[in-house]
Design goal:
The complex is a heterodimer of chains A (492) and B (493).
Chain A: H1 9-27, H2 34-58, E1 63-65, E2 70-72, H3 74-100, H4 106-123, H5 128-146, H6 153-184, H7 189-199, H8 206-224, H9 232-239, H10 242-249, H11 251-267, H12 272-295, H13 300-319, H14 331-359, H15 375-378, H16 380-394, H17 400-414, H18 418-443, H19 458-476, H20 479-490
Antiparallel strand pairs in A: 1-2
Helix pairs in contact in A: 1-2, 1-4, 2-3, 3-4, 3-10, 3-11, 3-14, 3-20, 4-5, 4-11, 5-6, 5-11, 6-7, 6-8, 6-9, 7-11, 8-11, 8-12, 9-10, 9-13, 10-14, 11-14, 12-13, 12-18, 13-14, 13-17, 13-18, 14-16, 14-17, 14-19, 14-20, 16-18, 16-19, 17-18, 17-19
Chain B: H1 2-23, H2 30-53, E1 63-71, E2 76-82, H3 86-103, H4 112-131, H5 135-144, H6 146-156, H7 161-189, H8 196-200, H9 206-223, H10 232-239, H11 242-267, H12 269-295, H13 300-319, H14 324-355, H15 366-369, H16 371-384, H17 391-406, H18 408-433, H19 440-443, H20 450-468, H21 471-489
Helix pairs in contact in B: 1-2, 1-4, 2-3, 2-4, 3-4, 3-11, 3-14, 4-5, 4-6, 4-11, 5-7, 6-7, 7-9, 7-10, 9-11, 9-12, 10-11, 10-13, 11-13, 11-14, 11-21, 12-13, 12-18, 13-14, 13-17, 13-18, 14-16, 14-17, 14-20, 14-21, 16-18, 16-20, 17-18, 17-20
The chains are: A mainly alpha (492), B mainly alpha (493).
């Protein structure tokens, strides 16, 4: 037996764990659902241990297994660890909210774990087939999760919208992949890269390749949620139950980033000149549409949805700065800045939606801007945490969000996109306005109700506080995470 | 080590005050929070004293240098050091912080811990701005100061505080974001270095220099503030609590002017020479036009805010005539303005705490009930209009001398500030302090208590000392200014 297959140990652990949980949960009564919850966390820890083991065993090398379908590398390890963290925090943050609304059912946990499995397959994909497999596994679980509260018309509508548009995007992606396959004759991404090297200067093949590339980009852009493929984001973020919004806004973003890296960088780096131009336009439009539209929102979830669009535009600044006039020397700098941005963004999103869940209680969803009014009177500490999150999203030092912006802007300036960097900072000024409004509501306004905030569970309080503090700590000492991203990208 | 202490002692104490305020039931432990804040501010000031006494005033080099790698991925260093220019601002900032803490002692009743913590954090960050020798470190401190100031104005400010706080934040953020792009461009052109001193040696073509100059100009002109991007200042000053106005006028405005000295002048000398007429014109507009605007203000704080803009116009004028008199005069003016504007805002604060109005029309005959206050305020008013033997005179005189070397008419227009300054300051003083007792509220006024006398007295000593014997200040900055002018004179095309 070929022991290299052990590179996929994390996926195996998760698959076995999720199946076991599904069977176990049938026998667990509703009042003992806690057991499933704890078991899910144990599975996540086991996955993290498995990833750590694989990382330790194979070091920083790249290992392709299952006939080139699956790739184990450092970027995969880091992104998977981020996905575990996001899933684990999502479970803790949403537990009380779900219990209060009778939604903490076995399906929730099982679907979440299978969605995570999809993300992991996507993160480690080395073939267009695996990309599609992981993408669909993840997306189908997410559609079901959003519709979990089946009595809510808004949630169901959001799920339908997500499903229809998601299916369309998958179709586009498949169509693009088929063209690339037709041109290169292979599905394995690194072989696509090698085949492209011989084809890009072939005038008769090139239009065909670029045509396929456009469709692939559309699929990737849909998953990232960048303009003009962003339409689903506000409705899904707004309509989905808050825990599901938290889930959709974090782990899948990591996976979408991995998908972009795998397809565009691992596979089609030779076409960088073409896709960088497309990404530049999408980045500019995303930052503009996201930041400007967010100002008009009175619903926090919707505001954060537009902010997500804007942030993905910012992240693209790093992704589109890798190859300068055919020169790939600073590619690792640029891609690692995008990866750093993504990880920091996920941490901020976890915290922001975590805060919304923390301020909610039975029969009350904290989701309008108004609901945060006077929070600093009711709970000084959590108002402070939210303030750190908002300043971090706005990119003000000394928070991690600033270094994320610094890194991608630096990449853009190095690649000669000074105009794009100037546009980006001006649009981020527009963005600062609506983040400031949240701080203003919490600190400057008097609360509508003066009662202290109901404290959540100990684990929730602890993790949410650590989440906020981590953004400050990363704002003072960002070197570790930056270096980790660089190491991961350099080993790509 | 001293510079790190000057930065981190106030910040650590700020965090402690915040924690005490949060943990021990908010305002019930207010006395403890106040004492802790005072302890932090005094300790923060004491560690800066050896910076001056141990300073080698014959050297233009950076002193008390600390250098540690911070973000190796971007070659960013935790690089601190002061020359003869920045050491004075570190001292000024730490000194003013002590006064601000004392001034708020019995005035701030709600959210005491957050109030003091904001000021202490702000103080530490400001020391960081003046001591930073690394571009990113500078930027981090420069922009981080926005957060506590935003909170100070928004939480403890006047009726229109939210508008003022948001305007302040967005205005200054716009400037600093463009500076960030300029910094990244310099990082790229210098081959991956964020060391400010490396950028001083970097050759740049004129077109690039001009673009970078405007990138920096937005950041610094908004902070100074220069006409026409000054409009946030009157709002912010008017709505901020007394302590906020004091720090804003005394220290935060100096960040912009300091930025010109650290970045624009030495990195982009050719662009500076080319655009000097523009800068001089903007400065003169600030001096003359804003001086006239100050004259018609009905609100005392607004009047002093406009007077600050006018005085800062003198500072930028001094920088862009590129001679030793002009630059040193501008620096002296910055320090002096730190004392005088702080004192003027504290005087208005003293009146406001008693009468809860800032309108000049509500006062009159204050001298009858508050003689001690009236005599102290007299001194500060005189310093504000640049009377000899006060600190205000030294800087303005030097800048006018410097301007005279360039052109008579330049000096002539600059010197009109003495007329406008005397006009708006003394007219306000006359209407508020002299004349018959205006109403029953004025008749019931209590004179300064010990705390207020201490704060204003300390500033009075500083103003007089600097006016009579400015040598300790100019002597320290002399070599650094010489070095700066050498950079400005050398073309980098």
């Amino acid at each position: 037996m070929n022991w290299d297959a052990i590179a996929a140990l994390p996926e195996m652990v998760l698959l076995a764990g999720a199946c076991a949980l599904m069977i176990m949960d049938v026998r667990v009564k509703a009042e003992h659902r806690q057991a499933t919850f704890v078991a899910a966390q144990v599975v996540l820890v086991a996955c993290a241990a498995a990833t750590a083991y694989v990382w330790w065993r194979f070091g920083s090398g790249r290992l392709s297994v299952f006939y080139g379908l699956y790739l184990s590398d450092v970027m995969g390890h880091v992104l998977k660890l981020a996905a575990y963290l996001a899933t684990s925090l999502a479970l803790v943050y949403s537990r009380q909210w779900l219990i209060d609304r009778g939604l903490l059912r076995g399906e929730f946990i099982t679907l979440l774990l299978f969605a995570l499995l999809g993300m992991m397959v996507l993160i480690s994909a080395n073939s267009m087939l695996t990309v599609y497999l992981g993408l669909e596994l993840m997306s189908l679980c997410l559609y079901a999760l959003i519709a979990l509260n089946r009595d809510s018309a808004v949630s169901t509508e959001a799920a339908m919208k997500y499903f229809v548009l998601g299916a369309l995007a998958s179709g586009l992606l498949l169509y693009g992949m088929s063209m690339i396959y037709g041109a290169t004759g292979t599905l394995t991404l690194n072989e696509v890269g090698q085949a492209l090297a011989g084809l890009v200067n072939n005038a008769s093949e090139r239009p065909f390749l670029v045509f396929g590339l456009v469709f692939v980009i559309a699929g990737v852009a849909f998953k990232l949620g960048v303009v003009p493929f962003h339409m689903w984001i506000p409705d899904v973020y707004h309509g989905a139950p808050t825990p599901m919004t938290l889930i959709v806004g974090t782990g899948p973003k990591v996976a979408a980033f991995a998908m972009a890296m795998r397809l565009l960088v691992n596979g089609m780096l030779e076409l960088a000149h073409d896709w960088q131009q497309m990404l530049a336009i999408m980045a500019l439009l995303s930052m503009a549409v996201g930041n400007i539209t967010a100002i008009a929102q009175s619903n926090l979830k919707r505001m954060l949805a537009y902010s997500a669009i804007a942030h993905m535009g910012f992240m693209l600044l790093g992704l589109l700065s890798g190859v300068v006039e055919g020169n790939k020397l600073s590619a690792a700098d640029a891609y690692s800045s995008a990866m750093f941005y993504m990880l920091v963004y996920v941490l901020m999103t976890l915290g922001a939606f975590g805060m919304l869940l923390y301020c909610s209680r039975a029969g009350f969803d904290c989701e309008r801007l108004e609901d945060l009014r006077g929070l600093s009177r009711r709970s000084p500490w959590y108002a402070f945490v939210m303030m750190v999150l908002m300043f971090s999203l706005a990119g003000i030092p000394p928070t991690a969000g600033f270094y994320a912006k610094l890194a991608v802007l630096s990449a853009a300036v190095n690649a000669g996109y000074v105009w794009l960097a100037v546009a980006a900072v001006i649009l981020s000024l527009v963005g600062a306005f609506y983040y400031l409004r949240v701080v203003k509501l919490m600190y400057f306004d008097e609360p509508k109700e003066t009662s202290a905030l109901e404290p959540g569970s100990g684990a929730f309080q602890f993790l949410l506080s650590v989440n906020g503090a981590a953004l400050l700590l990363l704002g003072i000492l960002p070197q570790g995470l930056m270096q980790l991203c660089f190491t991961a990208i350099r080993a790509l | 080590m001293l510079l790190s202490l000057a930065i981190w002692i106030p910040i650590v104490f700020g965090v402690i005050v915040l924690a005490v305020g949060g943990a021990a039931g908010g305002d019930r432990s207010a006395p403890l929070q106040r004492s802790l804040a005072l302890g932090g501010a005094v300790l923060g000031f004491l560690v800066t004293v050896p910076l001056y006494t141990g300073f080698d005033s014959h050297s233009a080099a950076m002193q008390f240098v600390e250098m540690r790698p911070w973000i190796e991925r971007f070659a960013v260093n935790y690089h601190l050091g002061v020359d003869g220019i920045s050491v004075l601002f570190v001292l000024l900032n730490s000194f003013i912080t002590v006064l601000v803490v004392i001034a708020g002692w019995s005035v701030i009743e709600s959210r005491v811990g957050q109030y003091y913590a904001s000021f202490l954090l702000l103080s530490g960050m400001l020391n960081g701005v003046f001591a930073a020798l690394d571009g990113v470190l500078f930027y981090v401190f420069f922009e981080a100061t926005l957060i506590p100031m935003f909170i100070i104005i928004g939480v403890w400010g006047g009726p229109n505080r939210v508008y003022a706080a948001v305007k302040f934040f967005l205005y200054t953020l716009l400037g600093s974001l463009l500076m960030l792009v300029a910094l990244l461009y310099l990082y790229n052109k210098s081959g991956g270095s964020f060391e400010i001193a490396d950028w001083w040696k970097l050759p740049l073509p004129l077109g690039v220099q001009v673009l970078l100059f405007f990138g920096f100009l937005f950041a610094f002109a908004v902070k100074v503030p220069m006409w026409p991007v000054h409009t946030w200042l009157p709002d912010a000053h008017t709505e901020a609590p007394t302590g906020g106005s004091v720090v804003l006028a005394a220290i935060l405005l100096k960040l912009g002017a300091y930025g010109f000295i650290r970045f624009s002048l030495p990195i982009l000398p050719d662009a500076c020479h080319k655009l000097a007429p523009l800068m001089i014109a903007l400065s003169l507009i600030a001096v003359a036009y804003i001086g006239l605007v100050a004259l018609v203000q009905a609100d005392m704080k607004r009047l002093i805010a406009y007077s600050s803009i006018s005085h800062m116009g003198f500072v930028t004028l001094g920088f862009f005539i590129f001679n030793a008199y002009g630059v040193e005069g501008a620096l002296v003016q910055m320090i002096s303005h730190g004392f005088v504007s702080a004192a003027m805002f504290l005087c208005v604060g003293v009146l406001y705490d008693r009468m809860h109005t800032r309108m000049i029309a509500d006062y009159g005959g204050v001298v009858n009930t508050m003689p001690r206050f009236a005599s102290l305020m007299m001194l500060f008013a005189m310093a504000n209009c640049g009377l000899p033997a006060t600190s205000g005179f030294v800087g303005e005189f030097m800048v006018i001398m410097g301007a005279m070397k360039v052109s008579f008419w330049l000096a002539f227009f600059a010197a009109t500030t003495l007329v406008w300054g005397a006009g708006y300051t003394l007219w306000m003083y006359k209407r508020v302090v002299f004349g018959p007792v205006a109403n029953g509220h004025v008749a019931a006024l209590q004179d300064l208590n010990e705390r207020e006398t201490l704060v204003l007295g300390a500033l009075a000593v500083a103003v007089l000392f600097m006016g009579i014997y400015p040598l300790p200040f100019t002597e320290v900055m002399h070599p650094a200014v010489g070095e700066l002018l050498r950079h400005v004179a050398a073309s980098k095309l």
